[in-house]
Amino acid sequence: METNLPLVRNVMKTDFKTLEGVTRVSEALKLMTEDKINAVLVEPRDENDVYGIMTLKDIARKVIAERRKLHETHVYEIMSKPVLMVSYDMPIPYAARFLTNFNVSYAMVMEADKVVGLVSLNGMVTQWKYV
User: Fold this and answer.
1) 74: closest CA among 113, 108, 42, 110?
2) Global pTM value
3) For 25-80, what is each residue's pLDDT tens digit?
4) CB atoms near residue 63 (< 10 Å)
5) Distance, CA of 42 to CA of 74 (rounded, Å)
6) Angstrom distance (rounded) from CA 75 to CA 21
7) CA–CA dist 108, 101 (Å, integer)
């Protein structure tokens, strides 16, 4: 078995943003542009709900391509839900395989039942240093 593989915690983004689902896409896009991020987590509405995620790709596909108005569309209308979760100590190759098996680009990173970051396939690829 391979040892010393880099872990998700080494490449995850800890400065992720969360929004409420009722946020207008125009407001979310402004925040994403200012903070130079490609995805935001969407907070659960209550204790029985789960996190969602909205990416720039969602905005392109579900708003722009459909000629919808950014200021009339809410995040909850275009987000994906539920969000895949990976452990902060999962080796990167397994996390990459997990995300690609589900054809998604992002996952929440969990540590002790708490969201501690976001990890992306792009981040895994650009930070990959294992030889």
Assistant:
1) 42
2) 0.89
3) 999 999 999 999 999 999 999 999 999 999 999 999 999 999 999 999 999 999 99
4) 19
5) 11
6) 5
7) 16
Sign of CA dihedral 20, 23, 26, 30: negative
- Residue 89 CA to its chain's centroid (Å): 17
Indicate the SS3 state at residue 80. Answer: strand
Beta strand 39-42 with 52-55 is: antiparallel
In the three-class reduction of DSSP (H, G, I as helix; E, B as strand; rest coil), residue 38 is classed as coil
CA 101 remoteness from chain centre: 16
Query: Where does 8-126 sit in CATH, by number?
Result: 3.10.580.10
Q: Of 6, 1, 2, 40, whose CA–CA distance to 124 is shortest?
A: 6
Output the six-digit token pair for 73. Answer: 């569309």
Do 50 and 82 touch, CB atoms closer than 8 A?
yes
